[in-house]
Each structure stands twice: as C-alpha cells, then as structure tokens.
C-alpha cells in the first residue's frame, strides 16, 4: 500500500509499505476513503518535534472496514466508519467516566495518510454510519475523527453555557471547530481571534459574533473593550503556544475556565494570575469516542457542517504539497483522497 512518511523536517514522502494485517483479535483494518493533514502534524514537519526518519504520519481517517479480528463483533467488512485518532476499549475505568483518550488499553492511529489503516481497539473505538454516506457528507465525518471533537472538547472543558461570552484563541481547523461548538452550545457572544480573512469568513459561518485580528496586548485589550472590561466567561485555547496561553488567561474573567486543546509547546502557566483571579484550566487530549455519537447525530441531521474547514482537496500522491500549503498558510486544512 501507499503510506505517507516523514524523514526529516520538511521531508514528506509517499512510499510503498506492506499492507497492515490483523495482529490482535481487537484489531480492524480500514480502507481509507478520506484522510487529511492535521495542524499537529506540522509540529514535526517544522522541526518543533523530534523526527524518526521513515515513520508513518497522519491520524485522521474515515473509511470502509476491510477486515476485523475475532473480538470485533459489532462491525463487519463493508461498513463505513469514523476512526477516532485515539483508540480505546471503551470499557476500562477511565473510559467509563468519559476519558477514552486515557484508556488503559489505548493506542493511536499511526500512518493515517495511507490507503489502509490498522485500528488497535476497533470494537471500542470505531463508530459506523447508517449505510454508505453521500460524498458531500464525508468531509464533515472526517472532522469527527479529531478536529471537530477536539474543538468540542475545548468548549466542554471550558464549561460553555447558554448565553456565555466565549473567546476562541486560534483560527486553525480546531479553533474554528471550537467556534462552532460554542455556538451550538448556545453561547451569546463568540469572539474569534483571527487575522486571516479566509479563516475569519469560516468563523462567521460557524457563529462568531466578533472578530479580533490583533495579537498580544492589543488583542487582549480589544477583548476587554468588547466585554466592558469584564473578560470572557469561557476561553478556548486551540493553539498550544506560550503566547496563546498567555492571551487566554489575560482575557478570562475571574472564576472562568480556560479549556485547552492545543498540544503545548513552550507553555508556562501564569499560576499567580490563576490563583489571584480564580481562573481554572481544564482540557487536554480530546476523548473523541465519548463525543462521537452526539457529533455524528449533529452532522447527519444537518445541524452542523464542520467539513467547511477543508478548503483544499488533493490526491494522496500530492501529500507533500498538502503539508507545504498548510505550513505556508495557503490552506486551512487539506483533505486527502487515496
């Protein structure tokens, strides 16, 4: 099969590798219908994370079941499934309280930008659609494997409630999905911090009531002006950098919570500010499987259309170009078709 590999920062290749096989009775093999490049894939691409030459890359996949292990009883070949990027048995003590991303038997999609993908805890992880979905629904279903669920997790962690003023820090696909999540949850004001016009347009489509293009102290002041000096009831930090986290806490009102889902890089928490203003921090890796049933319902009923975040579609053989386009902000998020 063809699979995307990374060999060094900026060095993405599509290579021939052996097809994955059923290694354990809990496994399933999925034939990819759509995959994509994630913002977190850009960390090793940019050299911010260590790279082991030749490692497969990619973790967002939807596709058709090709084969299942003996313990996978709820799925059969031919079914279309959404594959959470973090696998879980959905039965352990952590899964029982909704933390499927911390499953004691968990794993991750590895080499998702490929023609075939192995799922290690298929029974507890995958969610099937009702029949083969229409082509125009597939982009939104693909977001449920990660970015929509991750944006949703930021809103859940921040405790977004009806009527709240919510600030979303970050205008990548996750941040935009966070805007959508806050809007669906009934936020009265959703302030998206974005300086890129294409992303601003999507943010408005997703329910943003205000846009702030400034960063740093100017951006923080703009939020305070919009909120009469009070700050936000909930803040969604969807970037993972030190500046993003600083901004999140600077615009959070006393007693609020920052929901963080950006993979942290160079982040130091303002503990004194958190203590003095009683601002909480919650979030982390999204428990995708926990949210999938609700999000799948919202997508299939037409309530949300998160697939709008894909502003480019490329064949798998152009995966290196997909990385370049996202790295240089020529694309928000690229959908890959094998």
List keywords for this structure.
globular, single chain, 338 residues, alpha/beta, six-stranded parallel sheet
List the helices and strands and how they pair.
Layout: E1 2-8, E2 11-16, E3 28-36, H1 42-45, E4 55-56, E5 61-68, E6 80-83, E7 86-87, H2 93-96, E8 107-108, E9 116-119, H3 122-125, E10 127-128, H4 138-143, H5 147-158, E11 165-169, H6 173-184, E12 189-193, H7 197-205, E13 210-212, H8 216-226, E14 232-237, H9 242-251, E15 252-260, H10 271-277, E16 280-283, H11 288-300, E17 312-315, H12 319-327, E18 334-337
Helix pairs in contact: 5-6, 5-11, 6-7, 8-9
Task: Walk me through this protein's architecture.
By secondary structure, the chain is of the alpha/beta class. 30% of the residues lie in helices and 25% in strands. It is built from 12 helices and 18 strands. It has helices spanning 42-45, 93-96, 122-125, 138-143, 147-158, 173-184, 197-205, 216-226, 242-251, 271-277, 288-300, 319-327; strands at residues 2-8, 11-16, 28-36, 55-56, 61-68, 80-83, 86-87, 107-108, 116-119, 127-128, 165-169, 189-193, 210-212, 232-237, 252-260, 280-283, 312-315, 334-337. Strands 3, 5, 6, 9, 10, 17 and 18 form a 7-stranded mixed beta sheet that branches. A 6-stranded parallel beta sheet has the order 13-12-11-14-15-16, with helices on both faces. A hairpin with a 2-residue loop joins β1 (2-8) and β2. The N and C termini lie close together (10 Å). The relative contact order is 0.16.
